[in-house]
Design goal:
The complex is a heterotrimer of chains A (664), B (397) and C (289). Chain A is of the alpha/beta class and 664 residues long. Chain A folds into 3 domains: 234 residues, no CATH class; 182 residues, Rossmann fold, CATH 3.40.50.300; 75 residues, no CATH class. Chain A is 56% helix and 11% strand. In chain A, helix 2 packs parallel to helix 6, helix 2 packs across helix 11 and helix 10 crosses helix 11. With 397 residues, chain B is an alpha/beta fold. Chain B contains 13 helices and 14 strands. A 5-stranded parallel sheet of chain B has the order 2-1-3-4-5, with helices on both faces. In chain B, strands 7-6-8-9 form a 4-stranded parallel sheet, with helices on both faces. About 2% of the residues of chain B have low confidence. Helices cover 74% and strands 2% of the residues of chain C. Chain C has a two-stranded antiparallel ribbon. Chain C is globular and about 55 Å long. The C terminus of chain C is likely disordered. The chains are: A alpha/beta (664), B alpha/beta (397), C mainly alpha (289).
Chain lengths: 664, 397, 289
């Protein structure tokens, strides 16, 4: 059967990007590369050559900024390291060109790994400014070091030769460098849609959610940082060849700014945009250098900077998505008009196009059409059949402790949010965690899952202490959660979200991703994700942008996402909130079935009635202290609970509790 | 199929428009016609120049640019070379090495020049050297360091060698009985190797180098270097740099109360030195060409008429008097155009013509080049000048 | 010992420039969470502006006053025209944005004043020598500027209602509003303070360090390093950090190698950030949900 045709055009990305469009784009690019040296004027050729050289570090920076969400103001440092290493290996060690080039790239990557390991623990402003500082350090180091030729640099190593043909003019050099840009482009595009790439864009949507699914953000960021430096290093290698001297200017801040500008103009995270941005910046630079002195007599020096500054500001204020956004919007407009003009034989027929969104499989869609068609009615119609149960893992026998919390405490300054909580969760049952607002339920939850570090106390999951570790540690072991405030990956569609749940079951790393050698694995996980969606009656909205779903269905999607991880322990933070009656019923049914299949579930819930009805045992938190723990019946009758939960007067509280339950 | 066609259409259109955008006059991008063919003989003679017009070397590059523009205009007004017009293409290297390399590549590849002049400073000149050697384009640098022409086939230079400049300084130091010298040098190519030369030349004169400090040409604060120099055990100090940094260093030297006699290089042979150093300049001794003390030259000095005419022309055109660097550019132009007149634009013939320059009277001295000597000046080209009241005067040793 | 003291004096006067810039950076960071990369360019702008005014024949104090006021207004204008235009001011966006402002300011200065470094005439006073250590009168002016301007800003923040409200406004906009400071006003005020502090640093240092169109970036970054030493929130710690940075730079230039001087700040930055990142972050325990 075919999944329904409500795809996510808009500004979102469908699960499978437009492979055909990409292939055509690359073919077109290859044609341009072949033709340009015959048609371009010599000054345009010069621009073309340098835009190819700078496209490489720009692609790297685009991956770093778009994918890993990190700002680097020191990309020139790695560019310089690549260039210097290459030049030194050629000139001082007389190595063959390819060996020296590999040396340059490896040196840049090694340097990035070394500085990335500590620096990528920094956040936001600190990382950006630390990379900026790194740029200065590299520039000063090469300037002061005898080995790197001090201020004059390294020169006199000669031009490259390919099959005995010396690459000694711009035309040949363009053909020399362009294939590498093409390959780099393909690798980078592959990476963005690989397991690692999807994980990183999930991190950008919600770092917490991604980590809770087992994504080791830090490790991935270090890898992308290193990879990005590799691209920069390769650019440096070609720069050294083209300019025939490597001097400290290659590490200068203005180079980093130029690279940043390329990425910003192209659109953050768009690999094609980085290449286009490189060309535009080179063109802009050359044009302004001619234009400004013509307007302002006597203007000399780096007058192109005025354009850089203006463009940076204007793009960020007026067009934060850069060229990518422009092309996308334009394309959406074109396809919409076309779709309107055509008689709409079927939505899938009309929704083709090159904006990177058309799936190769059978879910296309109408751009901009509201997702209203995918309604609850369909879901409830299908409710006749009971949900199929996704696979769960049962590492310990039912009744054995799976999660042991002892002495868990969290202080914020003088305030104690959670105070010495001891709790053991036996495998194979549903435990409810309740308590009034501000009782510390979510804080407790966050400490168990690793979102925050406890002040003291231990959390033992499957015998392993995981307190204070990042969420991915628990997640890898099979501890998965959902969120009170939804943490949806808004840059992908519903399948894409649930697919992320499969992250911990996947294997493919960045290399396999770049070379596109993980298609089979991805298809398999995508199939499973779809099955889970079907079982939860969300199959009809699989292709929709996750953010476009109604609230209740987003919640269900989060549950699907958590289940896709085949967890051993599922922690649900107020899963019922915002669900309709039928959805609640469906979810309760599912949870029971999962429990019966051996899954351990802990849920924090406001809806006391639901908890009492669902849970095998109930724990009650009040003011950060665990005041009761036992089967629902005994907890319900515990006077301390009643007082704490509902007020000072026990009788009144009981009345209210009853009313609440009836209401539910 | 309709859809498939449409799909192909867009990338094809994009490809076509990019290719079109990149279209120009359709010049060959696969290597210029390297000199000597018929087409090149008809058009203008192309002389390229790569100068430090902006950045730290601007005090050198700007007067050089002025000079070349003025001389090209004069030459074309007089009918060019052999009836062929001379086209001068000046590029700014922004006082950077890679800027010089890029500009040189453009001059060779895009403009197909017959002769190149530049750069203003040693570093950028060194960066140009392998490029012009590979492309076999005769090139005349206007920078100082001997490394620019050491063993070169296609590169010449017109500024006095640092070696002879240091010889003059050390001769003067020896005559005054100094035995210990401290050096504060420019950290770029201009200052590199200077310490070694001083050690080497000092040996026969009983002079030792006791301290070395360096500074970036872009530096404005010299406290650290001068504090160390103040503490150094030395009879005299050499500051080796270009303006404005060498002038600022001079000011810091005096401000920090160092009272040792001081020498500077020919890198401060301009009025900008006095702007940067202010009253601190007084008493500095520096070897330089005769240009800046022209009014003190005796009438039988063979250079005097050439220098006087140049000063008159330059002052008329630009309202200021020329610096030594303007003089280096004048000499480069002179050597180059004489050779072009004699040999035409065929590269090897042109190079040979430059190498046979003999007793050519220029601004910085009298040039005699050979295949082994691409510098052409001797110690005679230098005089010792003393900074006094904001100008350079002839120093009586 | 004389050399040591000489280097210390040089370091202190250089550090006072960093300190004023750090104060400006903290002012904008606490209110807007923006690390203003253009902070150092305020200094250059004020330096070059006052040089032009003096060249035009204005007396030095008048020229300086006009430059201070103009740059302060320019900073507010930048806040209005650029910073406040962006609704979702993430770290990434704020860095790119202020980098754009910095680049633009530098380019404008290049076009107006050219590529050469320029010098403002020294302030009145005569140089003195104490036990072999020569102290330029301008260096005393620089330290004095730090005491007056830096101290003034400190007093404003710690003693006045508005100042306290401004500090609080980043964390508690409500508290700020009670005193009558809307977030918009608070942001403008912060940028005004940053502009003024930067401009003061620029004019007072120009006679010694000169003013060049491209010089602001490095100055601003060193101010940032000093601000990081102060945890990006504490004015006092940042001022101490700045003076320390100036002194260390001076020692490195004197005792190690002058060429490495400019790298010192970044080594310190990276080492401090890596060793004690948590101690330097505003709220290390920020809940991540």
């Amino acid at each position: 059967m075919s999944y329904l045709n409500k795809a996510a055009m808009r500004s979102k990305t469908g699960f499978w990007p437009n492979n055909r469009g990409t292939i055509l784009g690359i073919a077109a690019f290859a044609v341009v590369i072949a033709i340009v040296p015959f048609t371009a004027s010599s000054s345009m050729m010069n621009i073309a050559v340098f835009s190819m050289i700078f496209a490489l570090p720009a692609i790297g920076l685009s991956l770093l900024m778009g994918l890993a969400g990190q700002v680097s103001l020191g990309q020139a440092a790695f560019f310089a390291i690549g260039a210097y290493t290459h030049a030194i290996l050629l000139q001082k060690f007389e190595m063959p060109g390819p060996v020296a080039a590999v040396g340059g790239v490896v040196a840049a990557m090694l340097a990035a790994l070394l500085v990335g390991l500590p620096m990528l623990r920094l956040r936001g402003h600190y990382l950006a400014l630390a990379t900026l500082g790194l740029g200065f350090i590299v520039m000063i180091a090469v300037r002061e070091w005898e080995f790197t030729g001090r201020t004059t640099g390294i020169y006199g190593y000669g031009r490259p030769e390919v099959f005995g043909i010396p690459i000694d003019n711009n035309g040949l050099f363009f053909w020399f460098v362009a294939p590498f840009v093409l390959i780099g482009l393909v690798l980078a595009l592959n990476l963005t849609r690989s397991r690692a790439g999807r994980a990183l864009s999930a991190v950008n949507d919600s770092e917490l959610a991604a980590e809770s699914l087992g994504v080791n953000t830090y490790a991935l960021r270090v890898k992308v940082f290193t990879l990005s430096a590799g691209f920069a290093g390769l650019g440096g290698v070609f720069y050294a060849y083209q300019v025939q001297i490597v001097s400290p200017q290659v590490a200068e801040f203005h180079v980093s700014v130029e690279l940043l500008l390329m990425v910003v103009i192209g659109g953050l995270g768009s690999v094609w945009g980085a290449v286009a941005g490189a060309f535009i910046v080179e063109l802009l630079s050359e044009g302004l250098r001619d234009l400004i002195p013509a307007i302002i007599p006597g203007a000399t020096g780096e007058v192109q900077l005025i354009g850089y500054g203006l463009v940076l500001i204007l793009v960020i204020i007026l067009l934060p998505g850069g060229l990518y956004q422009v092309v996308k919007t334009a394309w959406a407009a074109i396809t919409r008009r076309r779709a309107d003009a055509a008689a709409k034989p079927s939505p899938a027929e009309t929704a083709d196009g090159g904006s990177g969104d058309v799936p190769t499989r059978a879910f296309g869609g109408l751009p901009g059409e509201p997702p209203a068609g995918a309604s609850l009615d369909e879901a409830t119609d299908a409710a006749a059949s009971a949900p199929r149960i996704p696979t769960v893992s049962t590492p310990v026998a039912a009744g054995e402790p799976i999660l042991v919390v002892s002495g868990l405490t969290k202080r914020y300054g003088g305030v104690v949010a959670v105070d010495g909580v001891n709790l053991t969760v036996p495998a194979g049952q549903i435990m409810g965690l309740i308590g009034p607002n501000g009782a510390g339920k979510t804080t407790c939850f966050n400490m168990i899952t690793g979102a925050i570090a406890p002040t003291s106390g231990t959390v033992r999951f499957l015998g392993e202490e995981i307190q204070g570790r990042k969420p991915h540690v628990g997640a890898e072991a099979g501890l998965t959660r959902t969120f009170q405030n939804l943490q949806v990956f808004s840059s992908t569609d519903v399948v894409g979200n649930v697919y992320m749940g499969r992250y911990r079951k996947g294997r493919a790393g960045i290399l396999r991703g770049m070379f596109g050698l993980q298609g089979r694995e991805q298809y398999a996980h995508e199939e499973i994700a779809r099955d889970i969606l079907d079982s939860m009656r969300l199959g009809d909205v699989a292709g929709l942008a996750a953010g476009d779903l109604p609230f209740g269905r987003q919640r269900m999607m989060e549950v699907c996402r958590a289940l896709a991880a085949e967890p051993a322990l599922l922690l649900l933070d107020e899963p019922m909130a915002g669900l309709s009656g039928s959805e609640r019923e469906l979810l309760a049914q599912l949870l029971r079935a999962l429990r019966d299949a051996g899954l351990t579930i802990v849920l924090v819930e406001h809806d006391v009635a639901q908890v009492m009805a669902l849970a095998d045992s109930v724990a009650v938190l009040d003011d950060g202290v665990l005041i009761a723990h036992g089967d629902p019946e005994s907890v319900r009758n515990d006077p301390a609970v009643i007082v704490a939960y509902l007020g000072t007067d026990a009788e009144e509280a009981e009345a209210e509790l009853k009313e609440l339950e009836e209401h539910a | 199929m309709h859809r498939a066609q449409r799909r192909l259409l867009v990338p094809a259109a994009v490809a076509a428009s990019i290719a079109l955008a990149l279209t120009g006059c359709g010049a060959s991008n696969f290597g210029g016609d390297s000199g000597g063919d018929a087409a090149a003989e008809d058009g203008p003679i192309k002389i390229g120049a790569v100068l430090d017009i902006t950045g730290v070397g601007a005090n050198l590059g700007v007067p050089e640019q002025n000079t070349l523009n003025m001389l090209a205009e004069q030459l074309n007004a007089d009918g060019g070379i052999d009836g062929r017009e001379v086209e001068l293409i000046i590029k700014d290297n922004q006082s950077t090495e890679d800027g010089a390399a890029k500009a040189t590549t453009q001059l060779i590849e895009n403009d197909d020049v017959d002769l190149i002049i530049g750069s203003s400073r040693t570093g950028p000149s060194l960066a140009m050297r392998p490029l012009v050697e590979a492309a076999q384009v005769p090139t005349i640098s206007v920078a100082a360091n001997a490394a620019i022409v050491d063993g070169s086939e296609w590169v010449f230079k017109t500024a006095q060698n640092d070696l002879v400049v240091l010889e003059r300084i050390l001769d003067d130091a020896e005559s005054k009985g100094y035995t210990k010298i401290a050096l504060v040098r420019d950290a770029t190519g201009f200052g590199e190797g200077i310490a070694d030369i001083i050690t080497e030349l000092g040996e026969e004169r009983g002079i030792t180098l006791t301290a070395t400090e360096s500074f970036e040409p872009s530096a404005t604060d010299f406290t650290a270097q001068m504090t160390n120099i103040r503490a150094a055990d030395a009879d005299a100090v050499i500051i080796w740099g270009i303006t404005p940094s060498a002038g600022l260093a001079q000011a810091a030297y005096v401000q920090l109360g160092v009272d040792k006699p001081i020498y500077q290089s020919h890198g401060v042979a301009n009025d900008a030195f006095f702007e940067a150093a202010g009253p601190a300049a007084d008493g500095v001794i520096a070897p330089m060409g005769r240009l800046l003390v022209a009014d003190e030259l005796s009438d039988d000095d063979p250079q005097k008429p050439v220098i006087d005419e140049f000063i008159a022309d330059y002052t008329e055109s630009f309202g200021t008097s020329p610096s030594s660097f303007a003089g280096h550019a004048y000499d480069a132009w002179l050597v180059g155009t004489k050779a072009l007149e004699a040999a035409g634009t065929e590269p090897e013939a042109l190079r040979d013509a430059i190498e046979s320059t003999t007793d050519l009277v220029g601004i910085s001295g009298i040039f005699t080049m050979t295949p082994e000597n691409h510098s052409g000046l001797t110690a005679d080209a230098l005089i010792m000048a003393l900074a006094e009241g904001g100008r350079w005067t002839l120093y009586e040793e | 010992m004389t050399d040591f003291l000489q280097l210390t004096v040089a370091g202190l006067s250089q550090g006072s420039v960093y300190a004023l810039l750090a104060v400006g950076l903290i002012a904008t960071y606490t209110v807007r969470h923006v690390v203003n990369i253009a902070q150092g360019d305020y200094a250059t702008l004020a330096g070059l502006g006052s040089i032009s005014l003096v060249t035009a024949g204005l007396p030095l104090p008048v020229a300086i006053l006009i430059a201070l006021v103009t740059v302060t207004l320019a900073s507010v204008l930048i806040e209005r025209l650029v910073i406040s235009r962006v609704k979702n001011l993430t770290t990434l966006v704020s860095i790119i944005l202020t980098l754009g402002v910095s680049t633009l300011l530098q380019a404008i200065m290049l076009l107006i004043w050219g590529a050469e470094a320029k010098r403002l005439p020294a302030f009145p006073g005569s140089d003195l020598t104490l036990g072999g250590v020569s102290i330029r009168s301008q260096e005393l002016w620089m330290l004095g500027a730090l005491v007056v301007v830096g101290g003034g800003i400190l007093l404003f923040y710690e003693k006045t209602r508005w100042g306290k409200a401004l500090r609080a406004s980043a964390e508690q906009p409500v508290a700020a509003r009670i005193v009558g400071i809307s977030p918009a006003i608070a942001s403008m005020l912060a940028f005004a303070i940053a502009g003024f502090a930067g401009a003061a640093a620029g004019v007072v240092s120009s006679p010694i360090y000169l003013s060049i169109w491209s010089g602001g970036l490095l100055l601003g970054l060193k101010g940032f390093v000093a601000a990081v030493l102060g945890g990006l929130v504490s004015f006092r710690a940042a001022i101490v950090g700045a003076l320390l940075l100036g002194i260390i730079e001076s020692y490195v230039a004197g005792y190690v190698a002058s060429g490495w001087k400019d790298a010192v700040a970044f080594f310190i930055l990276i080492i401090v950030l890596i060793i004690r990142p948590a101690g330097l972050v505003l709220r290390p325990n920020a809940v991540r949900v």
